[in-house]
Each structure stands twice: as structure tokens, then as C-alpha cells.
UniProtKB/TrEMBL annotation:
The lineage of its organism: Eukaryota, Fungi, Dikarya, Ascomycota, Pezizomycotina. GO terms for cellular component: plasma membrane. The active site is at D152, D333. Residues 1-21 form the signal peptide. This is Acid protease.
Length: 453
């Protein structure tokens, strides 16, 4: 599923993780004529929905100073996803002594701030205003230092950018380390998260972590090195939400051992930036019943998912037409922006989309589709079919050409990675206790474990 950024924390003399938690693939339609990826606009203004009163954007913002070509962005992203899901790999960390001191930095990227949820033990899910990355503000240590943490159901490793990180990506972000908390305990073990074109590495430490009205003592990584990909997005670290087990407890392990809830479940609702006010949220302990109607039904996580939220996929379709893609696994991954599948299965899907044409081949196959397409992309789980709006699976027009956000690239052999393109259309419930993903119907329509908005 999602180009899982393989994350395995091994608490031994040296902690090693071949993981990848964020896949910021930049498709061709988001690039400039010279191939550079279009970053969020500097012109974003702080706006407020007149009905809900929800503030859409923070007033402090900036455009990332360095942009990257689409081809390079794609290569790095795909490689990270492959590493993320390649649970058989192990990469040994090596000592890194060169550290560039940096002054205090402030995360001033454009952010579409979420409204405060009404339900207890819930937190708003902010985003970057482009539907590329979704994150929540998490507080660390005795001073409750706030950091933007990517919510990644495709990763188990949790890490933050440390104050000694000299990487370019760290210089524009907030950080956390020993000097920020009187209760921080630095460990002696290292951690290493490997990417195809970079890595995140540093030392393990422990302190309090606060989110959604909960406060835990847990172990996480303090990064002194990060790859350049994190330079282009607001996130200051990764909050791993996968089921993957290692010798170091993950966030979900810590949640379960805390006995804070009768049911260890969490629900996720992602906002679509173009819809205006952000009502995205993550709910712990119980789903937000205002997001759906009816009774939740569940699909067990596959034993072949290697610790990921992978569920059996019965078929993929275009409206009422089915592509005959059966017996596959779908990895539900909040840390991936789009949808990825093996090239032959992408071809099978686009074969039933009238007017679709292959636009480019190579590392990743992309397809153009008629811009006036109004038919939904569908996924069938069990006997129920769920829809993805053309608002999400088809790009905006660029010089009269629209691109499908289903990309032909194998991340996990013979499996699909369903990222935010899919999740913006549902309310997803992840049941840790019974390793299953739930589904229900919204007040408008019936779609997967979730709620279609």
C-alpha cells in the first residue's frame, strides 16, 4: 500500500529503521515549464468562513525557498515509498559527527488550520492548503512545545527535527530537544529512517507527548539529519500510526498500554482545501458519530500487510464499470498524497475511462483524462462500493490537459496504495484492538469504512 516508508525501530545498541513516512510525489501537472514543482502560493491570505467562523489560513507563511524538479521529486518519493513498504530491508546507521548549529527557526509555511473538534479526545487536522500533506499540532515536553506532526498510518516511527539538525530542511522548521524540556531524557541508541534518496537519523529520547487531550511518556527520535524533501512542507516530524511492531513502543503501542480508552480506535477525516473552512479531525477512543449514519461494518486487516493498514480490495471501477482488478490488497495511507498501483493495473483502470490516454511512461506511468469527466473512481471492499470524487482523482486543467491522480508505479508488489486522494472522500476508522478498518454510510451516501463528503 502506500509507498510505505518502511519503519522499524530496533532498540538495540544502534536503532535502525528502513522506513519512509511521507511521500510528497509531485505529478507533472504540478510542475512549471522548467520542471520545477509548484509550491504553495505566497499570496494565501488568512480567511474566515462567514458561516462556521473557521479560520482557513494562518497569517504567518512563506514559500519554500528551494524548489525541486518533478522528475527528481517523483524519483525520491517513489524510492521512499518502496523502502517504506520493504519490511525485509535493514540499513545500519553510521556515526555522523558533522553538525551545523542553527538559530531558532519558526515554521512559517502556509497552513490551512482546522477547526477545534467538538468531540473529546480529538484534534483538528491541518493541511498545507494544497491537499499534499495532513498534520496535527502535537505538544512535547514540560513546556508543551508545539510541533506540526504528519499523521502517517503508513509508518510506525515517530521523530521530530532536533535543534542540532544542520540539514537545510530543518532550518525553516520548529524543533525539539534536551534544552526545551526539564523532563527530557536523552537515550544512547540511534535511529535511522532510510529513504531511496535520503534519510532521517539521530538519537532516541523520551518525554511527554500531548495530543487530543491525551498526554503520554514515550520514546521518539530526535533527528540531526533529514533529507531535503521535508524542506517543502510544513511538517516538523512524523507521528507514526501504523500497526508495525518493533522493540521500541510506537505511538499506538503507547496508547494501548496507557489504558486511556475502553476501545483503542481512531477515526480520521481529511479536508479538501478547495471546500473552504477546514473541519478535518482525528478522533481517539470512538468515531465521531456526526460524520456518518448507520452501523459501522469492518474489514479485517490482512495478515500479509506486514504491520500496515492493508485490507482486501475486491475491485476498482469507473462509475458502474469495473476494471476486473480483483484479489488485491489496498494499503490505507494518510502519509501518501495520491493513489499508486502496478502499471498493468493502472492500464486496466484507464482502459475503462473514456478518452484516457497514457501521457508518460518510465519510473511512473501517468495518464491524461478528459477535463470534463464527472464520473467517480470507485473501490469495492467486500460487497460495498465507495466513490472518489473527480475533484480528487482528476487534476485541474493545465493548458487544457487534466491528469489522473492514479499513477502506475509498483510500491508493494501487486497491491494498491490509497492515499489522501481516496481518504478525502471518506471517514476512516482504524481499530487497533481488533486490527480492522471500519466502514459506514454518511448522511449523503454510502462509502467505505468511512464517510464521503
Amino acid at each position: 500500500m502506500k509507498m510505505r516508508f518502511l519503519d522499524t525501530l530496533l532498540a538495540v545498541t544502534s536503532l535502525v529503521s528502513c522506513a519512509s513516512a511521507f511521500y510528497p510525489y509531485c505529478p507533472p501537472y504540478r510542475t512549471l515549464e522548467d520542471g520545477q514543482c509548484i509550491a504553495p502560493s505566497d499570496s494565501l491570505k488568512a480567511t474566515r468562513d462567514e458561516v462556521s467562523g473557521i479560520a482557513s489560513f494562518k497569517i504567518s507563511q512563506r514559500r519554500p525557498q528551494v524548489e525541486i524538479s518533478h522528475d527528481e521529486q517523483m524519483r525520491r518519493s517513489v524510492n521512499r515509498l518502496i523502502r517504506k513498504y520493504d519490511h525485509s530491508s535493514q540499513v545500519r546507521d553510521v556515526a555522523r559527527n558533522s553538525i551545523e548549529e542553527r538559530g531558532a527557526a519558526t515554521n512559517t509555511y502556509a497552513i490551512q488550520t482546522a477547526a477545534t473538534p467538538a468531540q473529546t479526545n480529538s484534534a483538528g487536522i491541518d493541511q498545507d492548503g494544497t491537499d499534499f500533506s495532513y498534520f496535527a499540532q502535537v505538544q512535547f515536553g514540560s513546556a508543551d512545545t508545539p510541533l506540526y506532526m504528519l499523521l502517517d498510518t503508513g509508518a510506525s516511527t515517530t521523530w521530530v527535527m532536533g535543534p542540532s539538525c544542520g540539514s537545510a530542511a530543518c532550518k525553516g522548521h520548529n524543533s525539539f530537544g534536551p534544552g526545551d524540556s526539564t523532563t527530557f531524557q536523552m537515550g544512547t541508541e540511534s535511529f535511522y529512517v532510510a529513504y531511496g534518496a535520503g534519510n532521517v537519523s539521530g538519537t532516541l529520547g523520551s518525554d511527554s507527548v500531548s495530543l487530543a487531550g491525551m498526554k503520554f511518556q514515550m520514546t521518539f527520535g530526535i533527528a540531526n539529519n533529514t533529507s531535503s524533501d521535508f524542506e517543502y512542507f510544513p511538517i516538523d516530524g512524523i507521528l507514526g500510526l501504523s500497526l508495525d511492531k518493533s522493540s521500541t513502543p510506537s505511538f499506538l503501542d503507547t496508547l494501548v498500554s496507557s489504558k486511556a480508552f475502553k476501545s483503542n480506535v481512531f477515526g480520521i477525516s481529511l479536508n479538501r482545501a478547495s471546500d473552504g473552512g477546514n473541519t478535518g479531525e482525528i478522533n481517539f477512543g470512538a468515531p465521531d458519530t456526526s460524520k456518518f449514519t448507520g452501523t459501522l461494518s469492518y474489514t479485517p486487516v490482512s495478515s500479509n500487510g506486514a504491520g500496515d493498514w492493508a485490507i482486501p480490495l475486491a475491485n476498482v471501477g469507473f462509475g458502474s464499470n469495473q476494471a476486473g482488478i480483483t484479489g488485491k490488497l489496498a494499503y490505507i495511507d494518510t502519509g501518501t498524497s495520491f493513489i499508486f498501483c502496478p502499471p498493468d493495473q493502472a492500464a486496466a483502470f484507464y482502459a475503462i475511462v473514456p478518452g484516457a490516454k497514457i501521457a508518460s511512461t518510465g519510473a511512473t506511468d501517468t495518464y491524461s483524462v478528459p477535463c470534463d469527466t464527472t464520473t467517480a473512481l470507485t473501490f469495492t471492499f467486500g460487497t460495498t462500493t465507495y466513490s472518489v470524487s473527480p475533484k480528487d482523482w482528476i487534476s485541474s486543467s493545465v493548458n487544457g490537459v487534466c491528469t489522473g491522480n492514479v499513477f502506475g508505479r509498483t510500491i508493494v508488489p501487486d497491491a494498491w496504495l490509497l492515499g489522501d486522494t481516496f481518504l478525502k472522500n471518506v471517514y476512516a476508522v482504524f481499530d487497533v484492538d481488533q486490527t480492522r478498518v471500519g466502514r459506514s454510510c454518511s448522511s449523503n451516501c454510502c462509502y467505505i469504512t468511512l464517510y464521503y463528503c
